Amino acid sequence: MQIYSKQIRKYSSMKLKVVKTEAADIRVPTSDTLLGSDPFHKKPNYSCVYTSIELSDGTVGHSVCFTSGAGNDWIVYGVNDISKLLEDYNFEDFTTNPGNLYKEINDHHQLRWLADGVNRMALGCIMNAMWDCWAKIEKKPLWKLLVDLDPEKIVSSIDWRYLKDALTPEEAISILNEKSSAHKNLENNLLSEGPKAYSTAGWLGLTDQQISDTISEMKNEGFDAFKMKIGQDINHDIERLTFIRQQIGEESKLMTDCNQVLGVDEAVEYMKKLSKFNITWIEEPTARDDVQGHLEIAKALEPYGIKVATGEQVQSPVIFKQLLKSGAIGYCQIDASRLGGVNDVLAVILLAKKFNVPVCPHGGGIGLCNMIIHYSMWDQIKVSSHSENQVCEYLNFLQDDVFVNPVKVKNGRYIAPESYGWGLEMKDSFFDSHQYPGGSIWKNRVESGSIKFTA
User: In a 10 Å sphere around its CB, with 0-12 CB exposed, 13-18 middle and 19+ buried, how is residue 422 labelled?
Assistant: First the structure.
């Protein structure tokens, strides 16, 4: 078991500066195999913006921002543009109050007009790489840096302007201190037996045999919770859910995900027809920003024991606030790269605790699983302070060939990360070959990775 010092260092004598920021467009042609396929994203090319921030002492922080292909370059442009605000930036200013840099970028008097979406995702690229630098300087995994920070430092990282009607900074500090005497035992327990995971097995583009093989592999790894994509055809979904239920057994948890393809009334009727399969949740049942619609679906499905889960495409903590405060969701699915970085995600996890909604992060893609495990660790140690009803998404591809320190699972649970920071260092061979459009993997097939490629 790795032992980390709790001390948070001071940097005044080091005079660390940001000396370079780079953003790379990385794409994987997963459209060849249909891994990741769902009702909307029929032939995704799993992609990410890989941001690197170098400090004057040689420390390099990394982050990933996941996309499904076309548009990855839009975020690259955003990161490169925002990075001009970091020229000769004093790193001690960030560690003193990480909320100040967040506000400087998010409140830029002209960029703010662009609202959320690409703009906030580019912000998240910068912020997540800066937090990675900090954790590496402290020689800690990101989760451990967060666990060791004083509650006041955590709270000062958050932009509270639009959240205080649901959760005040004082309430947040109380939450973080509520079970302080138990935090060390909780940390030790998660170091020996990590957060519970679940597997997405039922991609729409895969055959029954491919799904069966995935389920068998996951069951051998100790998994007892699985998710299936639905929403294109009710008869097909009934057939496939019957098949999957036979594969996983009646005791395993079964979740469904329709990736926003349904309208509100349609989602309700659709899920009523599938309720006989003992479904834990319907994920993204309708438009990502339709708070009232999610609430109507949640109320209609309550008699059937089906909860609503959403969050992977929620663009801001304010929408999360509305979903949580109204009771529209039963599971809160934060995403590591959709929001404006660590600062935003900390706020959402604290809000979820206030409204007693379990945090079940969205994973997959390139690097998301590597990041969300840190949030689950922090949540289950410092915020919810238990591991009773949370599950953390896990995908068993784009790991060993991609990252120097890939995520690992054992007995259906994540193994707690030990590498410093996020642990997002990519292998040179993968990085070089998958850069778009010049990498070797894209030779003679550039258009299949571009906006011209349609399903």
Answer: buried
374 is catalytic: no
- Asked if residue 176 has pLDDT above 80, the reply is yes
Q: Which of 36-45, 156-165, 208-217 has the lowest mean pLDDT?
A: 36-45
Q: 227: which strand partners?
A: 200, 255
Query: For residue 2, how many C-alpha atoms fall within 13 Å in the half-sphere facing its CB?
Result: 15
**167, 280, 294, 164: which is closest to 227 by C-alpha?**
280
| Catalytic status, residue 353 | no
pTM above 0.85, yes or no: yes
CB 403 within 8 A of CB 434: no
DSSP state of 39: S
Pair 281, 255: CB distance under 8 Å: yes
Helices (H) and strands (E) in the chain, counts: 16, 12
> Choosing from 227, 353, 362, 434, which is the catalytic residue?
362
Residues of 378-417 as b/e, b for ≥16 C-beta within 10 angstroms?
bbbbbbbbebeebbbbbbbbbbeebbebebebeebbbbbb
Contact 414/407 with Cβ under 8 angstroms? yes
Alpha-carbon distances, residue 134 vs 16, 51, 83, 96 (angstroms)? 11, 15, 17, 11
Q: Rounded to 5 degrees, what are φ and ψ at 442?
A: -100, 5
Single-letter amino acid code for the residue at 454: T
**Neighbouring residues of 298: CB distance < 8 A, sequence distance ≥ 6:** 307, 308, 327, 328, 329, 330
Asked if residue 36 has pLDDT above 90, the reply is no
Residue of 41, 229, 294, 307 marked catalytic:
229
